[in-house]
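Chain X:
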Amino acid sequence: MKIFVLNCGSSTVKFQLLNMKDEMVLGKGLADCIGTNDAVFTFKGLSSNSTTQQRDLPDHQFAISLAINALSEDSERKELFIDAVGHRIVHGGERFKNPVKISKSIIQDIKNCIPLAPLHNPHNLKGIEICLSLLPGTPQVAVFDTAFHQNIPPKAYLYALPYRFYTQHRIRRFGFHGTSHQYVAEETAQMLNTPLTALKLITCHLGNGASIAAIKDGRSVDTSMGFTPLEGIVMGTRSGDIDPAIPGIMQKVEDLSADEVSDLLNKESGLLGLSGVSKDMREIEHVSEKGNERASAAIEVFCYRIRKYIGAYFAVLNGVDAIIFTGGIGENSSLIRAKILNGMDKLGIKLNEELNHKNHRMIHDGPIPILVIQTNEELMIARETASILKRTMQKNHITGDSPFSDDFKT
């Protein structure tokens, strides 16, 4: 079974083709800066070296067509058969707790979630619509970033606002990065040779966007991101948790509009705002080593906030069976992991400094495993898509229906 995984952003298309028999990546690539003069297309296939070329990418349809053509040309027979397409959808609201096979009604439900993710869901939908045109008859599956967190209880997702804001406007904690948190949780269960349903885990997805999740018995019970990805720990350009009175004060003291404050909190804050250097932790670590005090302060704030969340989730779970680091920072920065966890030995959390420095997969000396796991959201989406497709085929075999959906016929 071959699954085409698609992740459409405002000006990007990330894609992979996976053979689910052995979960091998047959080809992958990125169309970046779509619709600009700086557009770039990168591709790596099984039979070709990685190539990057600047070229005209006028729109998402052209980019996805280019991706399909590149995968076809790279295949042995110069033709491509795709069993299903798995789409990353950022927001599924309360409607979607699991991946779903796409139909007309599902597309409408995803459109209904656009107010919750106006910068993301429209572009995710664009990918679905393009694939319906380019790959007619091919089953498509939507996999939601928010779905994994939809089991968190009301005490964790409700905000202390007048209740009508929840009932009328669905303002509540949703959480994000669910596909990543789920993937590393499943990998942890395999590494520890323990059923996921028997584990209590704290997963730390640390990158330009960052979030932490408390996972019990295979389900997310709390997570740091909230109604939007702005809440939680400090991120590359996002502020994370702040006093809710601050935005109003910012509007007054600098005569800013609400949209300008939102942009400032989302695009000019976080590590970038604190350090004044970069949103990239690698660059911040580099200049910190040279004595830049603001960069050093940014690192300390970042690590301290994460440390507090780990402590809080330790209490939420009443203990923890493993702590997992993933994402670009979590997987690669031994300094950040050490600053977060050193001095937590009374909780059974103790780093092995040598293994941590080498980015080993297991980096603990204490009783609680500390793991470094490379996330693979594309593989998780492919697994979920294959699972949905298999269940659909089994159901159709029993009912005698066609394996292809009639949902789009008029």
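Chain Y:
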Amino acid sequence: MNIESVLAAIAVLAVVIFVHELGHFLVAKWCDVEVQTFSMGFGPTIVSKTVGETTYRLAAIPFGGYVKMAGQDDAENDPAGDPSRGFSAKTLGQRAAIVAAGPAVNVVFAFVLLAFIFSVYGAPFPSENALVGQVLPDRPAAEAGLVRGDMITAIDGQPVEKWQQLVESVRGSEGRELVLTVKSAEGVERAVEVQPRLTPDRDYLGEVIGEAWLIGIAPGAAYRKVGAFESLKLAGQQTWFYTGMIFETLSRLFQRRVPMKDLAGPVGIMQEAARQASHGFDSLLRFIAVISVNLGIINILPIPVLDGGHLTFFAFELIRGKPLSLRVRELALQAGVFLLVALMVLVVYNDISRNLTG
């Protein structure tokens, strides 16, 4: 893990966390709630500044943040200067709007960022040729020296014009060594010997659907300019796709179709952020959009501590006509904390195990 990986990951997390907390902050201010603290990070304070009634702080642990509002948990030790400006004094609709604003702004931010990417960099579409867009580490293609941007023009002397031709040849090789004619991004042609390996075959969500002879590459993409309207349309489609993909992944996790060991934690995010940054600023921006949608969707899950847990409390309040007791909420929050800590331990273990075993 190098310093570039760490900085790229911190940048990604800082942006999506700031956007999330900004959503809570702005709607709280709009509802005239006294916001006492806006924190980026947890733990010891690195730097802080009080402006008006709010202390803005940067903390040492970058994996999170929070907006602290007066009277948020009926806590007597943090009352609002004006009781009418406490969080608990607001209507159910206002409190729900404040809580929902964080996840909602994450999704909206992803949409805006994707629209910007499409308008500035163009829209990607599959290359008509056998262009290599990604080379997976420790796979036959990487070991043979293939790199991103290479164009495969022939296999065993037979011309290859389409990506599908390459796929069919590799999968039908039965492990036989193949000689690829490869043209680099600079136009230099070379011969590459590669031996396909029988590998678990996965779909776009990582679920194993069988085994296949593979060499560990993914197709590249070409880009075309699009107008403002099409950029917005594509951004909406992409945001919807990412949202559906997250829900589908969660569903498959609960069905045990996707193993828990595939979940990535902070180290995995660092590695992927660095990889995307190495592919260009647009790739890093797209990764930020994906993480922002993830943060927004995960936060609306009905787990105490998360925004979705608080919205669940509000739903009970709407049905009952009064809030759940403070004791019930405290117990639920403790269970939520335990669940999140257990999940964090799992993903960190996954990261360590993945790096040790390759």
